[in-house]
């Protein structure tokens, strides 16, 4: 079963979809920011946590939906799988860039500096809330990528051959 799944993943389509998802996310977030500035003229752009999470959920879903659509359309087969891989690739890149790179920098700077670097403490409540939020974001991005990929695959008629 894993071999069949691995054989259906088209990495060029996944990477293309991921790049489109990044660009779509930038455009959607810019549109949300412009809409906020237009609707609330004169008020400072202060966001509460709920608004930021809601905007992240919506823009993440839309961005991965479009990226998944591109991956599903380019792959021509197993569009849902390729669309979901867009979200997985995005999550892996995010974890690498937000968690691992700063950890390496802090560890290196701590080894170079005599006193080390103080890292602020994180409470259990904050960590639980953060993990739940990240899980919700990941699942919604995964659903967006899968749905977009299925839609992109669906546009290929089952009897139509590619290249004809």
SSE blueprint and pairings:
Blueprint: H1 2-8, H2 11-39, H3 49-75, H4 79-112, H5 124-154
Helix pairs in contact: 2-3, 2-4, 3-4, 3-5, 4-5
Describe the structure.
- With 164 residues, this protein is an all-alpha fold.
- Helix 2 (11-39) runs antiparallel to helix 3, helix 3 (49-75) crosses helix 4 and helix 4 packs antiparallel against helix 5.
- The mean pLDDT is 82.
- The protein is globular, with a radius of gyration of 20 Å.
- The chain has one domain (2-154).
- It has five helices and no strands.
- The longest helix has 34 residues, at 79-112.
Domain module tally: 1
What composes the largest sheet? none
The SS-based structural class is mainly alpha
Work out the number of β strands: 0
**Element pattern in H and E:** HHHHH
Gyration radius, rounded: 20 Å
Mean pLDDT: 82
Roughly how many Å apart are the termini? 30 Å
* Percentage beta strand: under 5%
- Give the CA-based shape: globular
Q: Low-confidence parts lasting 5 or more residues at pLDDT below 50?
A: none
Helical content (DSSP H or I, runs of 4+)? over 70%
Please count the helical segments.
5
């Amino acid at each position: 079963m894993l071999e069949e799944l691995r054989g259906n993943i088209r990495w060029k389509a996944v990477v293309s979809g991921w790049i489109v998802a990044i660009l779509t996310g930038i455009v959607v977030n810019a549109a949300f920011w412009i809409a906020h500035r237009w609707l609330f003229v004169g008020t400072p752009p202060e966001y509460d946590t709920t608004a930021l999470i809601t905007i992240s959920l919506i823009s993440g879903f839309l961005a991965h939906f479009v990226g998944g659509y591109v991956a599903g359309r380019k792959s021509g087969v197993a569009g849902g799988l390729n669309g979901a891989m867009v979200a997985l690739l995005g999550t892996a890149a995010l974890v690498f860039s937000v968690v691992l790179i700063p950890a390496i920098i802090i560890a290196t700077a701590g080894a170079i500096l005599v006193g080390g670097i103080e890292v602020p403490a994180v409470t259990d409540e904050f960590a639980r809330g953060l993990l739940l939020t990240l899980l919700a974001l990941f699942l919604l991005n995964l659903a967006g990528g899968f749905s977009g990929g299925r839609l992109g695959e669906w546009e290929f008629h089952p009897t139509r051959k590619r290249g004809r």
